[in-house]
Structure formats: structure tokens, C-alpha cells
Automatic annotation (TrEMBL):
SUPFAM superfamilies: (Phosphotyrosine protein) phosphatases II
Coiled-coil region(s): none
Domain Tyrosine specific protein phosphatases intervals: 259-327
Compositional bias annotation for Basic and acidic residues: 18-27
Sequence segments annotated as region (Disordered): 1-31
Any one Gene Ontology molecular-function term assigned to this protein's record: protein tyrosine phosphatase activity
Domain Tyrosine-protein phosphatase: 82-336
Name the record gives this protein: Protein-tyrosine phosphatase
């Protein structure tokens, strides 16, 4: 499937008109995102509003330059170079002293004792009846907003209510679950919602009803649900996707699955997207990095995997756990460019893909 240059120009111009400054180094909060083309839809026809050809061509040029910069940097480093780069990031992270407060004070509320929560970006609950304000969750910014994502651990039995309080307080409309409840015989996440259509569950003063549940239709198994969530007289709908083919400490196949998941939740621009796996750093950090790279490129920002992951780690400690996940970020972004017709399978691309499939912890795709 190809993506027309006219469509890119039109949508990027609209995006540029709505951009504003952010408190952080990304682009402004509330910026409407580029509608990354559906990878399953036919080639779109240009039907956008009329824009200046000069401005349009300039904006497309910015995007194209940013994309080519990312591709060139990725291919120049190759799989061996990216693995070395990740190892360097790991060493630097371990050497840093971080402002964390969770190891002792909130240890009973943390799924893993060695995964700490950065104080400066952590979610502070305001309406918990017991007065508890802590949840192992951090806001992560992107070019489209300073609170674009909430990265969090999979709820524990004692923190399911806290999770839904957070969803309510932060007005989240989308949740991405990247782990199963049970993996390889180990509990990875408490069952925090009713799974069958029509099922209802109550957590404290919050009631969750599953209004629909169906497969998304992706190569990998993904279940999408619509929840009707009530807290007292206040109700809201929440879109939930559960990715069931992503192994812990590993990566799924680099097919359309994750790209379609991102496509589904990307429309949530005014409210944060909640993303979790088990610890909330490995799989979670990986998918967030992919989305931030795509958002950056559409705004013409020159980024690398290293710069994006380093930035995410300033807000969600230890995001992206394994070098296979680091490589998957590169592979999936390149896959997106292939699927929208902005990249061809050159010998250099094919060589990178071949090296990728041979890397430890990677599934062939």
C-alpha cells in the first residue's frame, strides 16, 4: 500500500497549523497528530483542503528529510551497532542516580522490587478514598503532548482500584495491554476488567462493564474491548486493546499487528494513552518509542532510537529492557515506511532485516 505525497503534505500542513510549544522539548501539548495512514486501506486520494504549494512542499520536505535521517542513521549503525548502542545506554543508566522514592516507602504497591518509579513524573492520585496517592505509573511526553502516555505496571490485586482511579482522574480514553495475565506459569498482571461482552465487575466505587469484545483482525492475536466505566453518577467509555502475542523480555513478529494497535489508539490526542505490560518498562517502553519516533518524523524532527529511548527514560525509568526490543523499534519503524510506500526493499534494507532475524531474542518475520 502506498501513501500519496499529497496526503502527506495536506495532513502535515494541518498538523503544523495546530502545533504549539510544550514545557518539555517535544512539540506542544494538544497538537493534533498526523493521521498515519491505515496500513490495510487502499491508496488514499487527495481530498484535503487547499494549502499553499510552497508551504506544503516545504513541510513534506521536512518530513522526508527527517525520515531519511532516521533510516540512514539506523542502517549505518546496523544491528551490531544498535546492540552496542543499547549496551552503552544500559551502562549509563546504571551509573546515574535517579530521584526515586518507591523502593522502601511504596514497596508493597510495586510489582517488582527492582523496578523503581521516578518521582518527578509519577502519577499522583487525588481522589483515593483511603488517601493513598501512589501508583507505579509515570507520564511520558511526545511531540503531540506533554502527557501523551501513562506508562504503568500491570495492576496487582491490591492496586486494581488504584488503576481505575487513575484512568478516571486522568480522563484516559484508551488502554493498551501488552502482556497476558499469566505467562509461562507466572502471574504477570491481575485480572482488572470483565472480559466477556455483557460482564460487569465492581472495584470499590467504580463499576466496569464490558460492552463489546472482539478480535482486531491483526496477524497477531489482539482483542479489542469497549468498557463503560462508572464512578458514582459519572460515566465514560474506555477503549481497550490486549496484545496477546508479545513474549516477556522479547519481541513479537515485526508485522502489522503493533502498527494497527497504534493506529487504533492514536486518535486519543486530548487525553493520555495508558500503556502497560507487567513491569511497565520493557514492552511498554518499546511501543511508546515507536510511536514517538513516528510522531517526531511527521513534524520534521530529526531523531534517532538512542535519542528517543534516552528521553523516555528521563520520564519512565529503565524503559526498553532488552536489546532485542531496541532492535524491534528500528525494525518496526522501517516496516511502517515500507507499508506506506515510503521505503523500498533495497539490498541494504534486506541485509538489515536478515541481520535482525539472526539477533538473540528476535522472532523471524
Amino acid at each position: 500500500m502506498a501513501l500519496s505525497s499529497a496526503r502527506l503534505i495536506s495532513e502535515a500542513s494541518t498538523q503544523a497549523e495546530h502545533s504549539s510549544k510544550s514545557e518539555r522539548e517535544w512539540s506542544g501539548k494538544g497538537v493534533r497528530p498526523w493521521r498515519l495512514t491505515k496500513i490495510s486501506e487502499p491508496r488514499p486520494k487527495f481530498a484535503g483542503k487547499r494549502v499553499s504549494a510552497v508551504r506544503s512542499n516545504r513541510q513534506y520536505g521536512f518530513m522526508r528529510a527527517a525520515m531519511e535521517f532516521f533510516i540512514a542513521d539506523t542502517l549505518k549503525k546496523g544491528v551490531p551497532g544498535l546492540r552496542e548502542e543499547f549496551a552503552k545506554l544500559q551502562t549509563e543508566m546504571r551509573a546515574k542516580k535517579n530521584d526515586t522514592t518507591t523502593s522502601n516507602i511504596h514497596s508493597s504497591l510495586n510489582r517488582y522490587g527492582d523496578i523503581e518509579c521516578l518521582e518527578k513524573t509519577r502519577i499522583v492520585l487525588a481522589t483515593h478514598p483511603g488517601g493513598r496517592d501512589y501508583i507505579h505509573a509515570n507520564t511520558v511526553s511526545s511531540p503531540f503532548g506533554s502527557d501523551r502516555f501513562i506508562c504503568t505496571q500491570g495492576p496487582l490485586p491490591d492496586t486494581i482500584y488504584d488503576f481505575w482511579v487513575m484512568v478516571f482522574e486522568k480522563k484516559a480514553m484508551s488502554i493498551v495491554q501488552l502482556c497476558k495475565f499469566l505467562e509461562m506459569g507466572a502471574n504477570k498482571c491481575a485480572v482488572y476488567y470483565p472480559s466477556g461482552q455483557g460482564d460487569v465487575a465492581t472495584y470499590g466505587d467504580i463499576t466496569v462493564k464490558c460492552c463489546s469484545a472482539k478480535l482486531l483482525g491483526t496477524p497477531g492475536r489482539v482483542v479489542q474491548r469497549i468498557f463503560s466505566v462508572f464512578r458514582g453518577d459519572v460515566g465514560k467509555d474506555v477503549y481497550h486493546v490486549s496484545v496477546e502475542n508479545w513474549p516477556d523480555h522479547g519481541v513479537p513478529e515485526a508485522d502489522a499487528t503493533i502498527l494497527q494497535v497504534l493506529q487504533k489508539v492514536r486518535v486519543s490526542t486530548n487525553f493520555p494513552i495508558v500503556v502497560h505490560c507487567s513491569a511497565g518498562i520493557g514492552r511498554t517502553g518499546t511501543i511508546v518509542a515507536v510511536e514517538i519516533i513516528l510522531e517526531s518524523i511527521i513534524l520534521g524532527k530529526h531523531v534517532t532510537i538512542e535519542s528517543v529511548v534516552s528521553r523516555i527514560r528521563e520520564e519512565r525509568l529503565a524503559a526498553v529492557q532488552k536489546d532485542s526490543q531496541y532492535l524491534f523499534i528500528a525494525r518496526l519503524v522501517l516496516e511502517y515506511f515500507l507499508r506506506v510506500g515510503q521505503l523500498s526493499r533495497s539490498p541494504q534494507i534486506e541485509a538489515f532485516f536478515a541481520d535482525y532475524t539472526k539477533a538473540p531474542g528476535v522472532q523471524a518475520s
